[in-house]
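Hi R.,

Here's the input for the zinc ion complex you asked about:
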Amino acid sequence: MPEDAQEITWKDDVERAVAVLFNARHGVVFTGAGVSVESGIPPFRGENGIWNYVDPVYLELGFFLKKPLVSWQKIKEIFYDTFGQAEPNYAHYFISRLEKRGIIETVITQNIDNLHQIAGSKRVLELHGSSKTLVCTDCGSEYDISFTDLNFLPPTCFICKGILKPRIVFFNEEPPQKELKESFEEALQADVLLVIGSDGEVLPAAQIPFTAKESGATIIEINIARSRYTDTITDIFLQGTAVDMCKKMGKLLMIE
Ligand code: NAD
Ligand code: ZN
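And here is the predicted structure with zinc ion in place:
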């Protein structure tokens, strides 16, 4: 650089992140449970995690198939009665507006809460399925949750009377291959990846940001705490809650 040339200096990391995002050729957002915490849905693990008060066995495929009623009673209580009423927060709306403005192409989420879609995101790859859909464990038919009455458990298939299961990825269950494949393709194409509220512990989903980084993407990360990404691949770490950090970015991008 010539001696008299001025290096561009951003006032802070939020400005830098916004500049990087704004100039993205193929921006992608990758979300974990942290993006929905301010909608009232806690993460699974960690200090206030669901596993501190609910036994994860209810989400094990083998247990579900053996004792669907017991499993369903817990699943209904957690995912449908308690969190079923949750609404998107500012971060979900911010992400959907990034897509509308053409700044990002895709949201890859590990969440099952459908909040990205409710907020208006169009291209959402759900790596761990969705609680909005139920699938028959016998014939594979799928039903929107609104067609079933969870006052009668376990819900059964209208066609074959088989037991219906939420279309979420249980423990010991394979993630949906199509979504997984498309997510890795997105990671390879992305030149900017914004990771929000993900620990980076749940494989194979956790690998996606590493793949993006290896293929040259700049990694922006929002999290209240350091994750497996922070000291390994993150280029710009915005420490804070999803809503606070997205509001700061939204202000600079004039997305309100
Ligand atoms: P995770 O990787 O999703 O971890 C949650 C992360 O969010 C942690 O790194 C934590 O520091 C961060 N975080 C917490 N509050 C935050 C906030 N307000 N803003 C930003 N970041 C915040 O791991 P998990 O919770 O153990 O989840 C395991 C799997 O289950 C993941 O696939 C997860 O997406 C899924 N899950 C989904 C939901 C949902 O659909 N809302 C809820 C719980 C878990
Ligand atoms: Zn069926």
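One thing worth noting: The two ends are 38 Å apart (CA to CA).

Cheers,
M.
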